[in-house]
């Protein structure tokens, strides 16, 4: 698998995440509020973040991972497309808390969705989120995702066993420039 192609929006450059993004992403991955709904708890050290980011930056693992950057090329978070069935991928995202509620997550995620449906010719993109993660649920709904399922006791996380909501979006439902 090749590196994720660089994608742009009016304000953002989405580029392949790199191991050297760890320092910029440590404040994100060590923030207890940001990491509340993540699959693992807040990182305790830059070394932990460096290992985690390096594993996400490795090519050929069945996903594409973009660093969300502005003009300064500093990673503010990321968007990931994870391989599933043929023509189906899961989307995930994380963003520095200082950037919340500014439309950056929506802009970045929308651009990756557009890439998935137009360039990769996916038929479906889905997301898996905690039922209490109101921010993520709101983002998905604003982008046109529909709630498709509630999986009880799905994930074992740093907060204990958690349920999961599955949201899906079909290519035929996607509108460009949401």
UniProtKB/TrEMBL annotation:
GO molecular function, one term: acyltransferase activity, transferring groups other than amino-acyl groups
Domain of life: Bacteria
Keywords: Transferase
InterPro entries documented for this protein: Acyl_CoA_acyltransferase (IPR016181), GNAT_dom (IPR000182), N-acetyltransferase (IPR051531)
Domain N-acetyltransferase: start-end pairs: 12-168
PROSITE patterns linked to this entry: GNAT (PS51186)
Protein name, UniProt field: GNAT family N-acetyltransferase
Species of the source: Sphingopyxis witflariensis
């Amino acid at each position: 698998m090749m590196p994720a192609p660089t994608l742009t929006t009016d304000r953002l450059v989405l580029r392949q995440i790199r191991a050297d993004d760890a320092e910029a992403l440590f404040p994100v991955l060590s923030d207890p509020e940001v990491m509340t709904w993540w699959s693992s708890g807040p990182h305790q050290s830059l070394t932990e973040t460096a290992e985690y980011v390096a594993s996400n930056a490795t090519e050929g693992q069945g996903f594409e991972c973009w660093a969300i950057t502005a003009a300064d090329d500093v990673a503010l978070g990321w968007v990931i497309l994870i391989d599933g069935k043929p023509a189906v991928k899961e989307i995930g995202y994380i963003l520095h808390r200082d950037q919340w509620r500014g439309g950056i997550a929506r802009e970045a995620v929308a651009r990756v969705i557009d890439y998935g449906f137009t360039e990769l010719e996916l038929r479906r993109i889905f997301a898996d989120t905690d039922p209490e993660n109101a921010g993520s649920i709101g983002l998905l709904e604003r982008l046109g995702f529909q709630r498709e399922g509630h999986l009880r006791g799905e994930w074992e996380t740093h907060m204990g066993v958690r349920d999961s909501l599955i949201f899906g979006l079909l290519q035929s439902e996607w509108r460009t420039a949401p």
